[in-house]
Every structure is written in C-alpha cells, then in structure tokens.
Sequence to fold (128 residues):
Amino acid sequence: MRNSWSRWLDTWIVSLFTGVNMVKRKLAAHDNLKITLEQTGDKFVVKEASSFRTLDLEFTLGVTFEYALADGTMLSGSWGMEGDMMKGTFTRKDNGKVLTTTRAIVGEELVQSYSYDGVEAKRIFKRG
Fold:
C-alpha cells in the first residue's frame, strides 16, 4: 500500500523524535513506506519496506513485544482489536511516554493514526 502523510507530520515527528533535525524530518516525510499485513487468526505478520529499512514483524494480538522505530527508539507494547480497527499501545523505553496507533481499512485505504504526547497525525496507505 502506498501512503501519504497528513499536514501534521512534522509536528508529530518533532514530538516523537525529540532532537531529530529538520533534514531527517524532511527525509522521513518521503520515506516511501509500503506495508503488507498478513493475518492468520490472532497472529499478524507486518512487512515494512521504506527508503530507510526493510522489516518483518510478527506479533499476536494482546501479547506484549518490543519494537524499534527507524531511529532506534525502543518501544514495548501490544496490538489489540476494537471492532474492525487495530489499536496498538506502546511505551517508549527511554522516557515512558505512550504512543497510541490505530489501523483501519476505509474503502480501499489503510488509515493509520498516531497519538503521542498530545500530538496526533494520520497516514493513509493506498492499495498498491
């Protein structure tokens, strides 16, 4: 799925990645991220491919796991389901702040929303 960022991207990146300079923020806005989701029961495989890295992540709904953001920031948390929407709640290991992420299929798009430290952003992935 191809994606587009909302206009709040830069604010959200500044909030989540405190200390990330403007050049890196601008690069992140053009990471060309593609996501593939595969589900078997409560188990998911998420394949991420971007300009920065390729990652295969396996997890089970409701089971806590660790995850590293592209800049190396470590998170710990889990994904769950709320109706037809996936909701992930993750805590940064370095500062204890919570990142909440939701994923929902809306028409032919995957809408991924983020909330961190009072800042919200949305990323829309179009079926590729």
